[in-house]
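Anyone opening a protein record will find just a pair of labelled lines. The record below illustrates this layout.
***
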Amino acid sequence: MSFPKSFMWGGATAANQCEGAYNKDGKGLSTADVMTSSKYGHPREVTQTIDETKHYPSHHGVNHYERYEEDIKLFAEMGFECYRMSIAWSRIFPNGDDAEPNEAGLKFYDNIFDLCLKYNIEPIVTLSHFETPLGLQKYGSWLSREVVDYFMNYCETVFQRYQGKVKYWITFNEINVMSTKPWMAGGIQEDTEQARMTAAYHQFLASAKAVQLAHDMSGAYQVGMMYNGHIAYPASPDPADVTRTTQFMHQMLFYADVQCRGYYPNYKIKEFERNNITLPIEEGDLDELRAGTVDFISFSYYLSHVVGEDTPLKFVGLNGVKTGYKNPTLDTSDWGWSIDPSGLRYILNLLYDRYQLPLMIVENGLGAVDKVEEDGSVHDAYRIEYLKKHLIELEKAIEIDGVPVLAYAMWGPFDIISASTGEMKKRYGFIYVDVDDDGNGTYNRYKKDSFYWYQKVIETNGASLKFE
């Protein structure tokens, strides 16, 4: 077993889940900074302003802002060839609509990129990863067309600043989360289908404009979209279950349809007509969408779903999606997510067959409760087993099915705050971070068993997988 020589191995994080320093060096508040943790069984709450009696996990993250040199050095020790990360928009433009960028924020990411390049790690940079500047609420956030212009100002600033340092850009993280968690996706408080589709339209337009701007500024730039990798199987061979599964997938895949093909699919247009949904289309917009299709598809993959005739098409619950069915053939994680390695091969084929664009896996991993031994070691054989099985299915997709995959970036290489719950105890990393759900701890880093396992996988370009 081996992977293409050009294949990039690495890891992935998000600024709001790891950096902390939410108000340092001129950074403004983002939508993530007013989301509480979900401790004690309560869902994450959006408070709009900071309530000193509540806990906001993004405020401390895992102190990556202060310890990025240590973290990236550990990535280099593992052998990382790529690092998928995000820029905090409100670290560059504190209110989102500022006339001038914050130099301290720009310099911070200069330092990150310079260090990555020192270690021959290719940055893959997400422009908007679940943290729209809170200052843009006065316009209605992504419900407003004005925000498209502010996003473009941000894009122009970072595209210009980081020429020669960044090649791969991703416009919006898991853009289809607009249909499941609109506050996270775009700071949208009005949870109606009309609001979600208006905000999504403006993000499509912004993404298309950003793609064109990047191509105009540098022939080296490659710009991709990012899909929250929901896939579903029919609950039975009953044709009604198969039809319902197709409808379920349409709710997710239409986001990729627009960004990869440059137009809204007929099934979505018909749905809008039935539900009286209108889009704020202005002259020239449809040309922009067609001209701004992406260069590659990136996606996350954690779990698969089962859908039947009785599945409600309202996306709620765990991970934003609750279908009412469980797959009896699959095990689940500590948080109830199905563990389906074969689904990774399935979604790779699904996306490539549908769009014929190169792919990147920019999130995949197992959230679990880790135990630290007295000597500081963490024996996470369950994480190794999870990743090993997924990587074997990835290799099959490349070698047997011929799917062009550029990179695999595991989520997240050091323990970070969980986006879905705001917890620290839901750990993904190869590197243990000593901090609890309340932000208490030394923040020191410790290598887990999986650190050395992944180091070997990268060193052998995947060949070590077959000997285990």
Observations:
- The domain at 8-467 is CATH 3.20.20.80 (TIM Barrel).
- The radius of gyration is 21 Å.
- The chain has a mean pLDDT of 95.
- The chain has one domain: 8-467.
